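Lab notebook, bench 4. The sequencing result for the construct came back, and we need a structural model before the next group meeting so we can plan mutations. Quick request posted to the team channel:

Model the 3D structure of this chain.
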Amino acid sequence: FKAGRRLKRHFAAYGSVVKVLVAHSTSRQPGDMPGDARRRPSSLGFVHMASAKAARAILTLGQEQEVEGVLIRLQRFER
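Done. Here's the predicted structure in token form:
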């Protein structure tokens, strides 16, 4: 699953995307051999837009948006 690429492609329609960070988690199933951990996207990611105008345009579309058939929830991030 290429979540970072999909998010970048989706949000690039609104402006230049500086960086996409997607947290991944690893899990092991009972009986897996050591080193056979499975990597999967978690439910947390960050999309850094080049301009505040682009970020505002995305946020005005609503807190829930569909990206390639997957419903995601958006929140504004501030330091």
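The beta strands are 17-27, 38-49, 64-67, 70-73.
Will bring this to the meeting.
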